Amino acid sequence: MPLSAQHPASGESFVLSASLDNARHLSSLLRAVHFQDHATCFATTNGLRVTVEAAKCVQANAFIQAEIFQEFAVQEESVTFRINLSVLLDCLTIFGSSSLPGTSTALRMCYRGYGYPLMLFLEEGGVVTVCKINTQEPEELLDFDFCSTKVVNKIILQSEGLREAFAELDMTSEVLQITMSPDKPYFRLSTFGNAGSAHVDYPKDSDLVEAFYCNQTQTNRYKISLLKPSTKALVLSCKVSIRTDAQGFLSLQYMIRNEDGQVCFVEYYCCPNEDAAEAEL
Amino acid sequence: LSLRAVNSSRSAFASFLLAPLFFQLYEAGGGRHDGELCRCKVLMKSFLGVFRSLPSLEKTVEKCLILLKPRSSRLVVQLHCKHGVTKTHNLAFQECERLQAVFDTQSYSSSLCAPARVLADAVVHFAPTLAEVTLGAGPGDKISLRNYVEDEAEANKTMVTELWLAEDEFQAVAVTPGSQITFCLKELRGLLTFAEASNLPLTIHYDVPGRPVVFTLDDAVLEVHLVLATLSDLESSLQRPPTNNVSNLAAPSDDFADDLESYMIALETSTDQEASGVPPSPTFPLRTQRPAESNQEEEEEDEDEAAVPGTPPHKKFRSLFFGSVLTPGEPGPAPTQEVLAEDSEGEY
């Protein structure tokens, strides 16, 4: 039963309306950036971008391009609102989060504009749920100003190689130190915890490394608590690109393939710690 | 390479001795200026953290390098993994004294040897949370394994599981008929898992209740010992005087009082080991194993009370108190005291 038949009375226009046959295509990506309760949604005719920030130091963006949706219409140049991401995810997964093959939740999303709630119509197996989630004033977002021309070092890795390293990060360490260099150790993740220091080294000729463009030796430290949530995106992804600029700002871009083979991206940006990093033992 | 550990209540000691041939490469004694053996200790949690996930270790790790850097006080464990990935852990260590349990299996009256699988299969029948189990030599050359129930009162409410193993399941049986010992099963499980995986037969040496039981694994390149304290059995000690001249202070109840007077009385009367009636002393619980020597700050060799994590503070206090009362001249526990494991240093 096409959900558009459940469209409320005509004459009311929506600045954003979208239909998705499988709500998991959206919910799994949103989970990858769900490390704070609130997110800012930004929609254009190109698609939807959901942004989460923390501590004014880290920003995560999930991009769901218009082609992923069965229907995606934006009436204004851009639509922006702030929403409770925890509630949004709870609604999207209201029929349960287990991914049984063959069953999927269909989604229709409508937004009338500033001040109106986001409406969600979810259907699975003939059962329909209607959700209305209040929206808020969008907050100003950080602009990391990270463009490809400013990149100093870049490495593209197969995600499977990093997953274990991130899952086993010594969380008693306050920082995660990332070293990227044209010389040994090439690419190193280090932690300094209660037990001592730990390093994971990836040589540039490893078959996990798809691309290695390092011009300068850079060692930067980042608050581990800010980067640990990126593990969710890492687990979903097949490839990750790690880039740093001259100031040591970090960009992690994750390529995620959904159940239908479509590709979406999630990215994390993080500020380095201010104190100069000194490599330990 | 020797790896040793003792638990906090000093009722379990394990030692793994790995010959150079166990390793692909073994270089001992490198950087120390005085040429002495390097002896250090590392926090178990830190060390285990390196080997966190065994299944993933098996799949991804090709080689493991262990290096001691005495000058920077670091134990380096480096895992060389697939795809050229290297994981290096620099663990802080502390120098320490020798940790060695004192035991002499030659003097033990009973021993058993069986493939580890036999015992592993047997313990499967006991709850994972079970603390103590009693191993005994029964009639008809059968070996029994039964869970130990502390109180008579509990015995009516607790399920008792008893398992009998025929002599032919064992590779060697040399036991004193009617002998039995009670020890903490939890401490043994880890060793059984290892023994099964390494496919080595397990040898058990035991003697009278109260003397530690020793589990051994032997191989060309590996020697493993697990020494566990056993519950000293009140009744059997009254019937048979302990061979090493140590008195078992009798106490039928688990209560104790800091009553010095009754303690002294109990001490004096218990030195006469042939006496049929040792007055029950309310001072010490049944579980008292060997009392500590006076001039050493030894903790009591209590049966590891697995139900209660760690030794309750009041018991510790009592054992120290106990220790200070005993002066060398007094009649009491003989100096040939079984020190299960010496303190490497004070409180960790």
From TrEMBL, chain A:
Task: Show the InterPro entries listed in the entry.
Answer: Cell_cycle_checkpoint_Rad1 (IPR003011), DNA_clamp_sf (IPR046938), Rad1_Rec1_Rad17 (IPR003021)
Q: What is its main location?
A: nucleus
SUPFAM superfamilies to which the protein is assigned, alphabetical? DNA clamp
- Gene3D superfamilies per the UniProt record, alphabetical: 3.70.10.10
Q: What is the annotated localization of this protein?
A: Nucleus
Q: Which GO terms describe its biological process?
A: DNA damage checkpoint signaling; DNA repair
Q: Which CDD domains match?
A: PCNA
Pfam families xrefs = Rad1
State a GO cellular component annotated for this protein: checkpoint clamp complex
**Keywords tagged on the record:** DNA damage, DNA repair, Nucleus
Function statement: Component of the 9-1-1 cell-cycle checkpoint response complex that plays a major role in DNA repair. The 9-1-1 complex is recruited to DNA lesion upon damage by the RAD17-replication factor C (RFC) clamp loader complex. Acts then as a sliding clamp platform on DNA for several proteins involved in long-patch base excision repair (LP-BER).
Instruction: Give the quaternary structure.
Output: Component of the toroidal 9-1-1 (RAD9-RAD1-HUS1) complex, composed of RAD9A, RAD1 and HUS1. The 9-1-1 complex associates with LIG1, POLB, FEN1, RAD17, HDAC1, RPA1 and RPA2. The 9-1-1 complex associates with the RAD17-RFC complex. RAD1 interacts with POLB, FEN1, HUS1, HUS1B, RAD9A and RAD9B. Interacts with DNAJC7. Interacts with RHNO1; interaction is direct.
Family label: Belongs to the rad1 family.
Q: What is this protein called?
A: Cell cycle checkpoint protein RAD1
Q: Which gene encodes it?
A: Rad1
From TrEMBL, chain B:
**What GO MF terms are annotated?**
double-stranded DNA 3'-5' DNA exonuclease activity
What's the name of its gene? Rad9a
Task: Record the organism.
Answer: Crotophaga sulcirostris
| Signal peptide, first to last residue | 1-28
Catalytic reaction annotation? Exonucleolytic cleavage in the 3'- to 5'-direction to yield nucleoside 5'-phosphates
Where, per UniProt, does this protein localize? Nucleus
Q: What does this protein do?
A: Component of the 9-1-1 cell-cycle checkpoint response complex that plays a major role in DNA repair. The 9-1-1 complex is recruited to DNA lesion upon damage by the RAD17-replication factor C (RFC) clamp loader complex. Acts then as a sliding clamp platform on DNA for several proteins involved in long-patch base excision repair (LP-BER).
One GO BP annotation of this record: cellular response to ionizing radiation
Q: What is this protein called?
A: Cell cycle checkpoint control protein RAD9A
